[in-house]
């Protein structure tokens, strides 16, 4: 099983960062690699089991199922149901924690998945750099007033 962990500190209070990212259907509103998203079957975006169907800037489509959601713990977990990447058994968690020194936010995005040994490192590197770090960079830019 391959694992990815990316963390960052965002110069904004955890409540403000959570307000920006908490919508499971809201990726296109804050992540530069996502261009369109909808929740299937008319479900609410915070309902465990709902499925988001979204498009990347590359034109690829993904489907992800919401596994856990907590406003109290600033946490969202999901699994990839469909992706062009050759992976299975995916689970990811994005969690925010309060940093009291400067009223900032510690953000951590983790994932685990199965993939062929010759593909796993490449997939993990892309997921970490492009998706997870790319999202954190966009959040840091937003809260520093640069976007």
TrEMBL record:
<protein>
    <submittedName>
        <fullName>SRPBCC family protein</fullName>
    </submittedName>
</protein>
<dbReference type="InterPro" id="IPR019587">
    <property type="entry name" value="Polyketide_cyclase/dehydratase"/>
</dbReference>
<dbReference type="InterPro" id="IPR023393">
    <property type="entry name" value="START-like_dom_sf"/>
</dbReference>
<dbReference type="Pfam" id="PF10604">
    <property type="entry name" value="Polyketide_cyc2"/>
</dbReference>
């Amino acid at each position: 099983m391959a694992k990815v962990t990316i963390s960052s500190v965002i110069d904004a209070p955890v409540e403000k960062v959570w307000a920006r990212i908490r919508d499971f259907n809201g990726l296109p509103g804050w992540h530069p690699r996502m261009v369109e998203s909808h929740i299937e079957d008319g479900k609410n975006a915070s309902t465990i089991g709902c499925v988001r169907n979204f498009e990347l800037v590359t034109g690829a489509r993904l489907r992800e199922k919401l596994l856990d959601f907590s406003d109290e713990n600033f946490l969202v977990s999901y699994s990839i149901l469909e992706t062009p990447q050759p992976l299975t058994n995916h689970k990811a968690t994005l969690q925010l924690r309060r940093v009291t020194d400067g009223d900032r936010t510690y953000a951590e995005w983790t994932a685990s998945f199965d993939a062929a040994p010759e593909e796993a490192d490449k997939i993990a590197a892309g997921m970490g750099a492009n998706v997870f770090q790319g999202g954190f960079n966009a959040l840091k830019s937003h809260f520093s007033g640069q976007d």
